[in-house]
Each structure stands twice: as C-alpha cells, then as structure tokens.
Write a structure and sequence with these properties.
It contains nine helices and no strands. By secondary structure, the protein is mostly helical.
Length: 249
C-alpha cells in the first residue's frame, strides 16, 4: 500500500494537470473534422467553464493542492476552445442570426433560452460577467476574514458540485435519443481513468492536502461516469436522433 500511495502521489498530479488536454482534444478534433457538433451536449463546456472559474477563485482561500489549480486553469483554456468549435459547427447555425435563442422543443425550453442562444456573443458575455462578479465579491469580502472564510467554502462547494454534474447532460441526451453518437468514446475512457486516478490521489494524499469537498463531489462524478459507460454499452453509437440531443438538453 505504501508503494502504491507513493506512485499515485508521484504520477497522479501529472495526469490531473494534463487530463483536460487528453480528455477533450479528440472531441475537439472530431467536431472540427466532421463539421458538426450534433450529439455533443453544449452543457459540458458550460459546466466545466463555470466550475473551473469557481475553482480558481476558490484557491486563494482554500490553498488546495497546486496541481488542482493548474488543472482548472488548463481546463478553462481547453473548454473555451471546445465551446468555440462546438458553436461554430452547430447544426443549422450559419454564423449570424443575432442573440435570440435557438428554436427548441417545448420539453427542452429554458428560461430566456439560457445557453441556447443563436449568436455566440452571449456565451462569452456570460462567462465574462461571471468572472467579473466573482472578482468583485473576492475584493469586497477579502478584508473580512470571517466573511471571506464562509465565502471561500461556498465557492468550493458550488464549483465542485457543478463539476460533479458533468456527465448528467450527456446522459440525458443519450437517453432521449437512445444513442451515444457524437460523444467520443475517448472522452468517456479518459473520464473513467481520470476518476480512478483522482480517487487514489484524493484519498491517499496527506491529510488536509485535498479538501473534503473534492472527495465527495469526485465520488458522485465517478458514479455518474460509470452510468454513462453503461449507456455506451447499451446504446452504442447508433445514428438515431443526433440533432435532438443537442437541441433538447
């Protein structure tokens, strides 16, 4: 056990830092190559971008392991590229149309068409406003240690809870269309392998190195990733319902 713990402590941080690149490069290239993001849930970039921003602002107060901070920064960059490529290759989008939400089925409607806007500008404006809001709150609350501590805990819980829901939109999309077409198996494989590495790193690291929130949310996300793997086994990559999955989430 001691040898295994040392190996995980040595290699897990490297894997965690590189995991955004290894997990999503194939998905980005596949969308770019096929010129369509049908079947890929746009909520994946939404979840990971929001969670990464929250985790970056969480670090000054929590001072968690540096590898996890670097991972969040790299994930922010990679997910920005993925969002751009996915938006550029949405079915039925032609690069214009203003900021009105895309036409959706009634069951999939969201308030104000959130994250289903036709133009790209509002996606980036939302991310910028989220960053500016957190920066403002950080500067206002930092002088008060008691308030700052509570705010830090809230940021961590919120960011990690959002990240833990990552597989859910894709699972819902797959269930509706009874197919996993458009979602790369390489992403799923990296998620599952990453879960194994994270669990080892979280629970075998020295006490206090990884906050409990990382562990709890990591366990939930790992369980959801296993569920997504079951879907891949059941549904495969059948061609049925590609556009519905993107519209209906």
């Amino acid at each position: 056990m001691a040898i295994l713990s040392r190996m995980i402590s040595a290699f897990a941080p490297i894997f965690l830092v590189l995991s955004p690149i290894t997990s999503y490069t194939d998905q980005i290239l596949a969308i770019h190559r096929t010129r369509t993001s049908a079947g890929f849930s746009l909520d994946i970039p939404l979840i990971m971008l929001s969670a990464s921003i929250l985790k970056i602002f969480y670090w000054p107060g929590a001072r968690y392991d540096l590898a996890l901070l670097v991972q969040a920064a790299i994930m922010l960059a990679v997910q920005s590229v993925l969002l751009k490529v996915a938006l550029d290759n949405r079915p039925g989008w032609r690069g214009g149309g203003g900021d009105l939400p895309l036409r959706e089925e009634k069951a999939g409607m969201r308030p104000w068409g959130f994250w289903r806007w036709r133009g790209q500008r509002l996606y980036w404006q939302f991310l910028l406003l989220l960053t500016l809001l957190l920066l403002t709150l950080h500067l206002l609350l930092a002088p008060s240690p008691t308030t700052a501590a509570g705010y830090t805990s809230l940021l961590g819980a919120l960011g990690l809870t959002i990240e833990a829901t990552l597989p859910l939109p894709q699972m819902a999309a797959n269930y509706r269309s009874r197919s996993c077409k458009g979602f790369r198996f390489s992403v799923l494989a990296n998620w599952l392998f990453g879960d194994a590495m994270k669990m080892g790193f979280f629970f075998l690291s020295d006490a206090g190195k990884v906050p409990w929130a990382f562990k709890a949310c990591g366990c939930f996300q790992a369980a959801c990733d296993v569920g997504l793997g079951v879907q891949y086994w059941l549904y495969g990559e059948g061609a049925e319902g590609g556009d519905v999955r993107l519209r209906g989430i």
